[in-house]
Amino acid sequence: MLVSRGLRTGLIIAAAIVTMTAAAQAGEKVRYASIGDTTRAPIGWIEFCAENPGECRGGRNQARDIVLTPIAWRDLLKVNRWVNDNVKPLTDMDHWGVIEKWSMPTDGSGDCEDYVLLKRKMLIDAGWPREALLITVVRDKKNEGHAVLTVKTDKGEFVLDNQNEDVVAWTETGYRFVKRQSQTEANEWVALGDSRPAVATASAQQR
Q1: Distances (CA, A) of 90 to 11, 100, 105, 109, 196
Q2: What is the average pLDDT across 50-69?
Q3: 118 torsion bin: left (phi>0), alpha (psi -120 to 50), beta (else)
Q4: Which of 33, 101, 161, 193 has the fewest CB atoms lying closer than 10 Å?
Q5: What is the pLDDT of residue 18?
Q6: What is the pLDDT, as a whole number, of residue 40?
Q7: pTM (2 decimals)?
């Protein structure tokens, strides 16, 4: 799947802008999720990286946040909706015959983490810093494992989700946040502020 040239150009421009502006959709200033100790990667991540090393380049980097301009906000909405509209939800069992497999949805089908991988790739390919685009494992409103993409910005943390056409602040998702990629090391995972035991996998969800 390829993002259109116009969308790609807009994303590159948005990533380069440094003027600080408020995002009306963000409401009041969003609190950042608390970060805990390092923890194990979700089931499927290591295997995905073995098959797709270019998507999992490691190395210690400085944490970076996106400056959330109106252009950046619009482009986040476009990416979220484009992927949600163009990928058909399909469980890993139905898709691959296994309980859990992370993959790029190149055939037009996938489950929650596959949506996340594509959104993350589109943004990174367009010039957005990996350090601000964090694959995140949560427990959804049904208390089931689910994967979303957290975008760290100067206005707070926002979530791109295959269960939601809108991009919303992490505090407005109704989810419990379990773990996510470290900003400083793509292959390091950190626990988030949640008193319940961490889930090790992200299950498929229908939109």
Answers
A1: 28, 12, 10, 6, 28
A2: 91
A3: alpha
A4: 193
A5: 32
A6: 94
A7: 0.81
Q: Can you tell me the distance from the alpha carbon of 182 to that of 136, in angstroms, rounded to the nearest whole number?
A: 10
Give the model confidence (pLDDT) of 108-150 as tens digits: 999 999 999 999 999 999 899 999 999 999 999 999 999 999 9
Mean pLDDT of 191-197: 63
| Helix pair angle (70-86, 5-16), 10° resolution | 140
- DSSP codes joined into one string, the chain: ----HHHHHHHHHHHH-------GGG-SPPPPPPEEEEEPPPTTHHHHHHH-GGG----------B---HHHHHHHHHHHHHHHHHSEE--HHHHHSSS------TTSEE-HHHHHHHHHHHHHHTT--GGGEEEEEEE-TTS-EEEEEEEEETTEEEEEETTEEEEEEGGGS--EEEEEE-SS-TT-EEEES-SSPPPS-------
